[in-house]
């Protein structure tokens, strides 16, 4: 598999390319019934940093066995509670496969692009925050240009760009789960699926 895939959220086939890319990684995970955790990082208090919570909100109806979602507009996973949430995930699930989703800043030509890498992401890197790396697979959306005053850049990011990225990522993930895990499934333990309420 390719180490790094960059997709344009504005392209018409982005959802399908993202679906196929993610499916390559999670198919063997789903096949062995390893729990998959979608960790949507960010805060609704900043337009540029709201990508993760928006994706979490859009995926809240992704009801499947062994699929768990952390982070939404109501209960975001952000700098103040990230370490606690990572500890909770590792305590709750045996060998979870974590798909970490976050916004990032980048070059002008990459704004609106989705980057998929088989490696952990570094939350808060744009803000020089010292947070633990997280994720077996990282999906980042380039929401604006990196440079000086990055806090202000995130605050003044266009919601349109963030929404286009969130729609593309959520749709790609949804269809990859359909492709690899299949239709809606339940078992006797309803907790096999959960959108986790975190301390906001």
TrEMBL record:
The keyword Metal-binding does not apply. InterPro entries: Pept_HybD-like_dom_sf, YyaC. GO terms for biological process: proteolysis. It comes from the Bacteria. One of its GO terms (molecular function) is peptidase activity. Keywords: Hydrolase, Protease. This is Spore protease YyaC.
């Amino acid at each position: 598999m390719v180490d790094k895939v960059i997709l344009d959220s504005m392209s018409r086939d982005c959802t399908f390319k993202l679906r196929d890319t993610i499916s390559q990684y999670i198919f063997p995970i789903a096949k062995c019934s390893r729990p998959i955790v979608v960790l949507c990082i960010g805060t609704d208090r900043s337009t540029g940093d709201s990508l993760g919570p928006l994706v979490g909100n859009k995926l809240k109806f992704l009801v499947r066995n062994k699929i768990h979602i952390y982070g939404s507009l109501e209960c975001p996973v952000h700098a103040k509670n990230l370490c606690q949430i990572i500890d909770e995930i590792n305590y709750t699930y045996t060998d979870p496969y974590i798909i970490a989703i976050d916004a990032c800043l980048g070059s002008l030509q990459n704004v609106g692009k989705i980057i998929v890498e088989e490696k952990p992401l570094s939350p808060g890197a744009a803000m020089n925050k010292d947070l633990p790396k997280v994720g077996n697979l990282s999906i980042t959306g380039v929401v604006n240009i990196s440079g000086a005053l990055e806090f202000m850049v995130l605050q003044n990011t266009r919601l349109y760009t963030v929404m286009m990225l969130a729609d593309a990522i959520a749709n790609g993930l949804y269809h990859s789960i359909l492709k690899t895990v299949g239709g809606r499934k339940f078992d006797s333990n309803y907790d096999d699926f959960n959108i986790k309420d975190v301390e906001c």
